[in-house]
Amino acid sequence: MKVLITHSIPGNGVSLLRGHNIEVRVLEKKKVRKGDLIATLKKEAYDGMISLLTDTIDEEVLSAVGSQMKVIANYAVGFNNIAVKKAKEQGIVVTNTPGVLTETVAEHTFALILAVATRVVEADAFVRAKQFTGWEPELLLGVDLLGKTLGIIGAGRIGSRVAEIGNAFGMEVVYHDMQKNKALEEKIDAEYCGSPDEVLRRSAVVSVHLPLTDTTYHCIDAQKLSLMRSDAILVNTSRGPVIDEKALISTLRQRKIFGAGLDVFEHEPAVPAALRKLPNVVLTPHTASASIATRGEMAKIAVENVLAVLHGGKAPNEV
Ligand code: DGY
Among 100, 101, 291, which residue has the most ligand 1 atoms within 8 Å of its CB, making it the best to mutate? Predict the structure, then answer.
């Protein structure tokens, strides 16, 4: 059997697969282009594949996949890069890596919230630029979190964990999701809002935790941003296109909100110059899940899913 891995992954996943008598090909490129992936898949038949969230595995790519392909394990919790319905029609099991990155992404989300609130990135740049000439009462004033409202849009695993951390910081939590999260309500007394609009209107910090689908694309647009308070912070560690990036840039430029923290962008890896120039936004390069332990665990899970399917069993994390 043969497995294609579109990029090197941390840990001993490759040797684990080889130990099961599986031939493994790891593509060397930093990012494999769609055309190259199609050519690779047409040239040789594979039984399984481990893909990254940056690999486009749409209907065209799936058409190039040989009939013996049984499993595509995405090295991510999100799987908007894969045409799952088409894969299923072809009898291919698609898997992801849920759970294991919850804590890491939630902690990174809170790092962004704190960074924007305390203006720590601006302050660091200020000192490095030798601009610190003495203590001043109004130098780099930020906002406090204690007693403020934290609004969660999408209260799944990661959103719920961010809510818990916010609660530990003395924040009141409100949230919106398609359905109520009773466990979260019981645990931290979180209040359900019937619409994302209510969360946006009421919160001092809004953290977005939505999967990217046709319905969530640009669900935070100019109109929704206009509902936010002028002292509010917006954070997104889910998927870039759930926020209309142009509308957010304009909102930040006009200082209609206090600031934003973004780990994801609408057209990754492109980050608009207009966004990079703004002082009231903290930017990280889609690294919310990037802890040594978590990235290793994600690789382990992807390999386990591949092995389960190739050995005729049920994938633990079929999407
Ligand atoms: C995922 O796994 O979907 C995350 O975006 C990785 O950071």
Answer: 101
pLDDT value at 232 more than 80: yes
Name the residue with the closest Cα to ligand 1, atom 3.
78
Catalytic residue chosen out of the listed positions 202, 209, 286, 295: 286
262 contact partners, CB below 8 Å, separation of at least 6:
112, 235, 236, 240, 275, 281, 282, 283, 284
Is the pLDDT at 30 greater than 90? The verdict is no
Cα(237) to ligand 1 centroid in Å equals: 8
Q: How confident is the model at residue 138 (pLDDT cuts 50, 70, 90)?
A: very high
For residue 268, indicate whether it is catalytic.
yes
* The pLDDT of residue 29 is above 80: no
pTM of the model: 0.95
- List 239, 245, 266, 295, catalytic entry: 239
Residue 278 has pLDDT above 90, yes or no: yes
- Ligand 1: does its nearest atom lie under 6 Å from the Cβ of 78? yes
Residues 281 and 247 sit within 8 Å (Cβ to Cβ)? no
Q: Whose CA is nearest to atom 7 of ligand 1?
A: 289
Exposure b/e, 154-188, CB count within 10 A at least 16 = b? bbbbbbbbbbebbbebebbbbbbbeeebeebeeeb
Q: According to the model, what pLDDT value does residue 185 have? A: 98
Known catalytic membership, residue 286:
yes
